[in-house]
Design a protein that fits this description.
By secondary structure, the chain is an all-alpha fold. The longest helix has 75 residues. The termini are far apart. The radius of gyration is 38 Å and the shape is rod-shaped. It has one domain. The chain contains 3 helices and no strands. The protein is 67% helix and 0% strand.
């Protein structure tokens, strides 16, 4: 099979497919990588097309995958590139994929929230620990000053008591 270059010989064809078979046929043609699709309804708004909901779902799944990839890279986990493109999933498998992506995204968001809370708690507890150490130092110094200031009158009384008892 040839490449898709300008000088390559091409054929323009129009396909009429049943709605039920369109997904499988288009995905198989896409797997071949030798076709280019043209829009025969350029005047129709994107939001008025029949497949707009499927495109939105795919874009949402793509967003979730980008989020997961960002989190993986943030954690410095290497991502292996197999160099292969996975096959297009069947429509019934898309529902399972969508549910899995949703679950993974929610778990990652919860982990991030918990991690932030733990960091905040750690900083607060570290600050309290520092305050308690400084407070302990203060009370230790005050106690030493109190004891040294209290010992002098006791020693004077002790000398007087010795003097009186002799």
């Amino acid at each position: 099979m040839g490449e898709l270059f300008r000088s390559e010989e091409m054929t323009l064809a129009q396909l009429f497919l049943q709605s039920e078979a369109a997904y499988c046929c288009v995905s198989e043609l896409g797997e071949l990588g030798k076709v280019q699709f043209r829009d025969l309804n350029p005047d129709v708004n994107v939001f008025q097309r029949k497949f707009v909901n499927e495109v939105r779902r795919c874009e949402e799944m793509d967003r979730k995958l980008r989020f997961v990839e960002k989190e993986i890279r943030k954690a410095n986990i290497p991502i292996m590139d197999t160099g292969e493109n996975p096959e297009v999933p069947f429509p019934r498998d898309m529902i399972d994929l969508e549910a899995n992506f949703e679950k993974i995204e929610n778990e990652l968001k919860e982990i991030n929230t918990n991690q932030e809370a733990l960091k905040r708690n750690f900083l607060e507890l570290t600050e309290l620990k520092f305050i308690l150490r400084k407070t302990q130092q203060f009370f230790d110094e005050v106690r030493l000053l109190f004891i040294s200031g209290f010992e002098q009158p006791i020693l004077h009384l002790h000398k007087w008591a010795i003097f009186l008892f002799q």
